[in-house]
Amino acid sequence: MPLVVTALVGTWAVGNRERATAPLVGRVAVATTAVLAVVAVVAVAVPMVHPPNPDHFQRDAAHFWGTPVTDPQLKASARLGRGLRARGVDTVFIVRKDAGFLYLRTGTRNPLPFDIVERSDLGGDDEAGVIRRLAAGEAEWVCVRKPGSGGRSDKGLIPSHLERWIRTHLEFVAELARCELYRAPAGSRTGPRAWPDGSHSTGVSASS
Q1: Per the confidence metrics, is the pTM higher than 0.85?
Q2: CB contact at 8 A, 173 and 87
Q3: Which residue, 34, 121, 176, 178, is the most exposed by fewest CB within 10 angstroms?
């Protein structure tokens, strides 16, 4: 809002610069802009340098320089990273809307082109397209959010069919911080080859 108000004042000053009061208008515009600029800087900078609760925020976390990250987020993502490393997992598909944050914090790689796993970000094929990729074996490890976790989200954006398919078709390995770890069954035919007639359904239509 300070930036919007500054723009409005500047526009007003330019529109009135030809009037007799131009010098006064100019001085008012400059003073107002300066004050609002200071307010904008303070409003952004102070919470970053001195957050309301210093114990609750940490600045300059890896990959998030200058961005306040809550202490619970740091601790949980660190536990997730340790849990994945302990199992030799360095490439994993994380089924959470904050997957991108977790890849950066855990140092893992994403085998699929989705790092915000909500229905609005899964492409034209929606959940069915992701399920086909998993069925084809494109991700050996999958970590899906725990039921009821993942922060507030529009229920219509939650990939519930995808989550259910993972829990039904992959092998549960462990409950980790932030998500439950699953693995494609060793030696199993998870792709179209598993269904001789090629007609096996993923349980999700392309239009769902």
Answers
A1: no
A2: yes
A3: 34
Would you give the distance in Å from CA 46 to the centre of its chain? 25
Contact residues for 169 (Cβ-Cβ < 8 A; gap 6+): 134, 135, 190
Q: How many residues does the chain have?
A: 208
Q: For residues 182, 186, 200 and 208, what is the CA-based torsion angle, rounded to 10 degrees?
A: 20
Structure tokens at 189: 């035919």
Per-residue pLDDT of 107-150, as tens digits, reads 999 999 999 999 888 988 899 999 999 999 999 999 999 876 75
Q: Quote the CA–CA distance of 178 and 52 in Å, as a whole number.
A: 26
**Residue 165: what residue type?**
W
Alpha-carbon span 75 to 178, nearest angstrom = 11
Give the model's confidence band at 27: pLDDT under 50 very low, under 70 low, under 90 confident, else very high. confident
Return the pLDDT at 53.
Answer: 57
The radius of gyration of the chain's CA atoms, rounded to the nearest angstrom, is 25
Rounded to whole angstroms, the Cα distance separating 25 from 167 reads 66
- What's the pLDDT at 36? 74
Q: What is the pLDDT of residue 8?
A: 72
Interatomic CA distance for residues 127 and 4, integer angstroms: 39
